[in-house]
Design a protein that fits this description.
The structure holds 2 protein chains of 2 kinds. By secondary structure, chain A is an alpha+beta fold. Chain A is built from 5 helices and 9 strands. The mean pLDDT of chain A is 82. Helices cover 84% and strands 0% of the residues of chain B. Chain B has 15 helices and no strands. In chain B, helix 2 runs parallel beside helix 11, helix 9 crosses helix 11 and helix 12 crosses helix 15. The chains are: A alpha+beta, B mainly alpha.
Chain lengths: 166, 397
C-alpha cells in the first residue's frame, strides 16, 4: 500500500483566487490543482521545457471535478480504510484474497453470510484493479477477488478462514 | 419633461456602454479604456456633446469608487494582507517606489506642484488588479509558479493604497502643513484600528450583515459600505479607503454568493465612474499631454518589468517566468483613474486628469498585449540559451 506522505504535495495560497496544490510525479511530471473559492477546479499540467509554466490547463466545474475525483480516487478506498483503522481503536480491515480452492468461488455474498457468522462487514470488492464499494448481496465471487472487510480483529480473522476454508 | 430627459440620456449612456463593453469583449481587452473614450467623446468639447444628468452621474460615480474598493477589499482577507506583507515586503516597497517615483518626477517637471506629484506617484505605481487577474486567467497562467508572486504584489499594492489614499486625501483637503500632518496621522490611526478590527472581529461584522436572505444581506452590505465610506470621508480618510477596509473585515466570512451579487452592482457603478471621469475631461487637453504620457508609458513598462523580474527571481523562478511576471504587472487602470479623480476634484492642475486618462488608455490596452507576448519572448530566450549551450559544448569537444 502506497503512503500518501511520500508525495511531496505543495500548497500555495493564491490571494483572490484560491489555493493551489501541486506535486511532481515519480516520473518527473509536475501536476497540480487550483481550487477556487467558488468551487471550480483547474487541473494543471506543467510544461517540461519551462517548469514554471503550465503546458495545459483544464477548467472543471464542481460536478466535473467530483467525477474526476471519483475516477481517480476509487482504488484509494482501501487506503482510506487503512487511515480509518488508525483513527478508530480496535477496528481492523483486511483485503482477503479468494483462492481457486475457496468454497465460495461462484457463490454470492449473501451465500457466505459473513456478517451474521463473523460480525465483520464486507465494504468493497476489488477485481482486476476495479473497486466495487459496498457490493450488493447478489454479488458473485470469483477466484482472484480481493474482498475488503472491516470488523474486530477476531471477526476479520474468522472471515479470512471462512472464505478460504469454508 | 425633466424626468424624460434624464431617463433618455441615462439610458443612452448605459446602453452605449453596453455596446462598447461588447466590443471590448470581442477584442479581448478591458472595457475600462473604452469607457474612458466614451466619456471623452460625450463630454464637454467632445465629438457628441451630451447634456448629461450630472447630479445623478456624480452620485453614481462616487458609489462606483466605493463599490470598486469594497469588492477589492472583499477579495483579500486581513490574513492574506499580513501574510504577504511578511513574505514580500521588500518587493512591495520596490514596486511602489520604482514605479511611483518616475511618475512623481514627471509631475514636478510638468509643473503640477508637490501635491500633483504625489497624485502622479500613485497613478503610475499601482497596477490594475482587475485587468491583471483577468489577463492571468485568460492566458491560463493562474497555475504558473510565478503567479503567486504577481498576486502577492497586487495584494501589497492594495495595502499600499490603503495607506496612500488617506495621505493623498488629507493632503488634498488640508490648507497648511500642520493640518495636513494632523489629518495624515488621524487617517493612519483609523487605518490601524480598522485593520485590528478586521483581524479580531471580522466574523462579528460578517454575522451582523449576513443575517436573513441574500437580498437582505446585499442591502445591508451595500448600506454599511456607503455609511462607512461617508464617515471615512467626513474624517478625511477618504470614502474609498473606508469601503476598502470594510471589505477586508468582511472578506473571510462573507458568503461567496453575496460576493457574486455585489459584482454586477460594482460593474454598473464603476462603468458610470469611468465615463464620468471621461466626461469631465476635455478632449482638447489630451494632445498637449500625449508626449509626456507616452514617455511615462515607456518608463512604466520598464519599471514593472524590473519589479516582476525581481519578485519572480526572489521566488526562484527561471528567466521566462520572470519576463511573464513583469509583463503581467504592466496594465494600469481603475486605481490610477480613482486617484486622478480625487486629485482633480480637489482642484489640482486639470492637465493631470488628461495625462492620467491618456496614460491609462495606453497602459490598459498595451499591458495585456505585452503580457501575451511574454510567452514567445520567454521561449525565444530558452531556445537562444539552448543553442548557445549547444555551441559551447561543440566548441569544447
Amino acid at each position: 500500500m502506497e503512503d500518501t506522505d511520500l508525495v511531496d504535495l505543495e500548497e500555495t495560497k493564491l490571494p483572490g483566487v484560491g489555493l493551489r496544490h501541486d506535486f511532481t510525479t515519480a516520473r518527473g511530471r509536475r501536476i497540480g490543482v487550483i481550487s477556487t473559492r467558488g468551487g471550480e477546479r483547474e487541473l494543471l499540467l506543467y510544461s517540461q521545457d519551462d517548469p514554471d509554466a503550465c503546458h495545459a490547463v483544464v477548467d472543471l466545474d464542481p460536478d466535473e471535478a467530483e467525477v474526476l475525483a471519483e475516477l481517480l480516487g476509487q482504488p484509494r478506498v482501501i487506503e482510506r480504510l487503512a487511515r480509518l483503522r488508525e483513527q478508530i481503536e480496535g477496528l481492523a480491515t483486511e483485503g482477503i484474497y479468494l483462492g481457486d480452492d475457496s468454497p465460495y468461488v461462484g457463490k454470492t455474498l449473501a451465500d457466505a453470510a459473513i456478517r451474521s457468522r463473523t460480525g465483520a462487514s464486507v465494504v468493497a470488492l476489488v477485481r482486476n484493479g476495479e473497486v466495487t464499494p459496498s457490493p450488493a448481496p447478489s454479488q458473485e465471487f470469483r477466484s482472484g477477488d480481493k474482498i475488503v472487510v472491516v470488523g474486530t480483529q477476531e471477526g476479520v480473522r474468522a472471515t479470512a478462514e471462512l472464505l478460504n476454508k469454508g | 419633461m425633466h424626468t424624460a430627459a434624464l431617463l433618455i440620456e441615462l439610458g443612452a449612456v448605459i446602453f452605449g456602454l453596453g455596446l462598447v463593453g461588447r466590443l471590448a469583449g470581442r477584442l479581448g481587452i478591458s472595457p475600462v479604456p473604452l469607457y474612458l473614450l466614451a466619456g471623452l467623446a460625450f463630454g464637454a468639447g467632445g465629438v457628441i456633446p451630451l447634456n448629461a444628468p450630472e447630479g445623478f452621474l456624480d452620485a453614481a460615480s462616487e458609489i462606483g469608487v466605493v463599490m470598486l474598493l469594497l469588492l477589492l477589499g472583499l477579495e483579500y482577507s486581513a490574513g492574506d494582507l499580513l501574510g504577504n506583507l511578511r513574505r514580500q515586503a521588500p518587493v512591495g516597497v520596490l514596486d511602489l517606489f520604482l514605479n511611483g517615483l518616475p511618475g512623481a518626477a514627471f509631475g514636478l517637471l510638468l509643473g503640477f506642484g508637490p501635491i500633483g506629484a504625489l497624485a502622479m506617484f500613485g497613478i503610475t505605481a499601482v497596477s490594475s488588479s482587475g485587468i491583471v487577474a483577468k489577463v492571468l486567467a485568460d492566458l491560463g497562467r493562474l497555475g504558473n509558479r510565478e503567479t503567486p508572486s504577481i498576486l502577492g504584489i497586487l495584494v501589497l499594492e492594495d495595502l499600499g493604497m490603503a495607506v496612500y489614499l488617506p495621505i493623498l486625501t488629507a493632503v488634498l483637503a488640508a490648507s497648511g502643513v500642520w493640518e495636513a500632518t494632523g489629518s495624515v496621522l488621524i487617517a493612519l490611526a483609523c487605518l490601524a484600528v480598522a485593520l485590528v478590527v478586521a483581524l479580531r472581529w471580522g466574523s462579528v461584522i460578517s454575522k451582523f450583515v449576513s443575517a436573513g436572505s441574500s437580498e437582505v444581506t446585499l442591502l445591508r452590505v451595500l448600506g454599511l459600505a456607503l455609511l462607512v465610506a461617508g464617515v471615512a470621508e467626513q474624517l478625511h480618510v477618504s470614502a474609498a479607503v473606508g469601503a476598502f477596509l470594510l471589505g477586508i473585515s468582511l472578506s473571510s466570512d462573507l458568503e461567496e454568493e453575496t460576493h457574486h451579487r455585489l459584482e454586477p452592482l460594482r460593474d454598473l457603478f464603476a462603468a458610470v465612474f469611468f465615463v464620468s471621469f471621461g466626461l469631465s475631461t476635455d478632449p482638447s487637453t489630451l494632445p498637449p499631454v500625449l508626449l509626456p504620457a507616452l514617455a511615462l508609458v515607456v518608463v512604466g513598462v520598464a519599471t514593472k518589468l524590473i519589479t516582476g523580474w525581481f519578485a519572480a527571481k526572489r521566488a526562484g523562478i527561471a528567466v521566462p517566468g520572470r519576463i511573464r511576471a513583469g509583463a503581467a504587472l504592466i496594465p494600469r487602470g481603475e486605481f490610477s483613474i480613482v486617484i486622478a479623480g480625487l486629485a482633480t476634484a480637489a482642484g489640482v492642475d486639470p492637465r493631470l486628469a488628461a495625462l492620467a486618462a491618456a496614460y491609462v488608455l495606453v497602459m490598459a490596452v498595451l499591458g495585456p498585449v505585452l503580457a501575451r507576448f511574454a510567452d514567445p519572448w520567454g521561449r525565444a530566450y530558452v531556445r537562444w540559451r539552448r543553442e548557445r549551450g549547444a555551441t559551447t559544448v561543440r566548441q569544447r569537444t
